[in-house]
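Dear colleague,

Thank you for sharing your sequence with our group. We've completed the structure prediction you requested, and as agreed, I am returning the results in plain text so they can be pasted directly into your records. Please verify that the sequence below matches your submission; if there's any discrepancy, let me know and we will rerun it promptly.
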Amino acid sequence: MLFAREYRFGTPARMGPGFFPTILGGILAALGLSLALPALFRNGEPLTFPGLRPMLAILTAIVVFALLLAPLGFVIAAAALILIAGLADPDLRPIESAGLTLFLIAFSVVIFVVALGLPMNLWPNL
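Please find the predicted structure tokens below.
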């Protein structure tokens, strides 16, 4: 995470490669503080620790996606991600999970491949 410390900052008229990430990071940090500080002084119910099942399901989904993306392509890796992450919600029915999977994959392909033209491996190279 210390990779960008060597980048020149520049000026607003001649921005260096470190200008935008630094400014964006500062703005996001200020926004986070503006939301977090008032919350420290409010009365309310204490936060509860989330269950182990949702945390394990989400973590497993991310790891499986990372492992499947290169060999099996985006569509299969994304399907695995969405279906495994759906296990975090015990109320999610299988038909809802399947519909959500189809919609999110189609939406992602349209956005990233069609609209943005990103060269993505969608299917396994057989």
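Summary note from our side: Residues 112 and 118 are 6 Å apart (CA to CA).

Kind regards,
the structure core
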